[in-house]
Amino acid sequence: MSTWPEVDDPAVIFTGPSPRGWHRLQQAAECLQRYAWSYENGPKEDISKKPPLAIGSLIHLALAQWYSRMKQEQEGKNPNEFMDPVEAVRLVAQVQGNEKHVANVVETFHNYRKRYWQDLNNRRIVAVEVLYDGTLDPGPMEALAGEKSYRLTGRLDLMYEDLGGRLIASDHKTTGRLTKRHKEYFAVSGQMLGYAHIVRQKHPDLASFEINLIQHAGQGDTKFERIFLPRRPALEAQFVARARDIEKSIELMQAEMAAGKRKVDEWPKVMSELGCYHRYGACDHIDKCMYGADAKKGGSWSWAD
Length: 305
Ligand code: SF4
Hints:
Bound molecules: iron/sulfur cluster
Number of strands: 7
Structural class: alpha+beta
Low-confidence stretches: 299-305
Strand content: 15-25%
Distance between the termini: 65 Å
Order of helices and strands: HHHHHHEHEEHHEEHHEEH
Largest sheet: 5 strands, mixed
Mean pLDDT: 92
Strand order of the largest sheet: 1-2-3-4-5
């Protein structure tokens, strides 16, 4: 039982996206037109109420509060400086209008805590939801040619030291259904390569990158698994150069827009069933691509073989 005093205004941690994260580069790599709909077509659509995002973000919040309290305890400080995880989830869900996900998130968090209660003794928590602000620097020849650096940011869920004192970066991933393929997905993910790149810029001694997989309680049982990503020498060696290629392709299209040579609906389209219909369903912009920039979602068409 905690003997620490209550605190009047305990902290609730921000777990939202970072200012210049990988997501925009991924969109552009997958389809430049998708990038243009998202970033060059007026204010960004609010997607915070989409169930996978709303649930994932509330689970991230519960874990951020839990690990921040754990860090305080390990350092002999008052854990109540940070709001209780379940209270924080209820508060933020109410503010966001996402109350219908609270029962799922609280059950998932309780089961997670039961499964990993030994984290308190097995890990020294170094940082929680920490923003890394890194760079994609030009190679020597590009630098000589006067090319600039690009910014790449990422909000890392957790940094900890294991019992051997090795520094580990950890990213929580929530899903409705955990599969054996998740390890393969994340091994090729630019987001993970990007995180590892910017974390290593600050901590060259980073020993490993962990994916903390969480199947939430929405469709039945919770499941948890932790995997360490293998090193991928070819991909890691090329990551910065390829990310810079994507930035340059965006800049080229933007310059053509500014010169009046290209409109927002005229960026290169992937036009592939695998790109336009990914594993979560149809691309959000499919109607605009098919019917024009003013088309509404769910346009008047249906499949007829
Ligand atoms: S529908 Fe296809 S072409 Fe259009 S933005 Fe989406 S992925 Fe790109």
